[in-house]
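Thought: the user wants the 3D structure for the chain below. I'll pass the sequence to the structure tool as-is, report back what it returns, then summarize two notable features.
Action: structure_tool
Action Input:
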Amino acid sequence: MKKLAAVISASLLLASAPSMAELYVGGKVGKSWLEDACTTATANCDDEASTAGAFVGYEMWDFLSIEGGYDYLGKFTADGLNDDKVEAFTLAPKVNLPITDDISLYGKVGGAYVKYGSEEDYSYLGAAGIEFDSHENVTVRVEYQTITDANNEQVRAMGNSATLGFVYKFGSNEEAAPVAVIEEEMVEEVVEETPAEPVVETKTFETQQLGSGNFKLNSTELNEESAAQLDELVEFLNTYPQANVEIVGYTDTSGAAEYNQVVSEKRAESVAHTLEEKGIDASRITARGEGENNPIASNDTREGREQNRRVEVTVPAFEYQVAQ
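Observation:
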């Protein structure tokens, strides 16, 4: 009993922490097997089976969740088991380590209440796996799990499983963010004003900022809706052929810096390619990636990281002549 009490106490302490939490549910299926369940005296040993389970979790931070579940490990024949079921109710913290924006490793260490045939016992649990973000709300995980110290009066066994799982997260549906336009007043500076002579004026265009929602899911390619939102900029560039455009991509600090640099460059190039498709000459476009540099918000929060994943489109100020 002391084993599970320690796990529950730690889990409740973590669950009470303030956070931007998300609830999720999932299921899993796979292969299960017992270790040390049979001895040399066992007449008939069948220590392998199929397993299935369900779980519910509470994600408090990107890297930390609390997860509880039910595991049906299967029916076994071993010392103290005669085609009997082995089941477990589990509770454990889950710690994630991001590898990229869409892939992370994770581990769990906690406790389990095990029904081992006609016997019941409290045991320790450990698990490790890899998780893939396949959709805005759905992730896929591959996991190895072991439950130690499942015993009866004859043996002290370990219950192992290797499973494929699917997770559905509530409230994580990320709508495509519209193009955020930073309004800037047009500056018209009269450089020289002489009757009957042309007036030289300085002109610019409001800066456009594209967020991660303006790109296709898990892609550096600009989605169709956001590509259409560049039409106003294209019209401006066609009206003023002396104007040029600068495109700079940024990321947050999740994942490796080298990977983030490549993502920022590809997203900037995707916007540049869209402008070229709309008729803007490539010689008027400059595109580059700055990776994790120049954040506009904190990378310690989900909202801050979302703001930092952006592409800024700027038209530098230029001069043109107005006939009088």
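Final Answer: Structure generated. The domain at 2-169 is CATH 2.40.160.20 (Porin). The first helix runs from residue 2 to 15.
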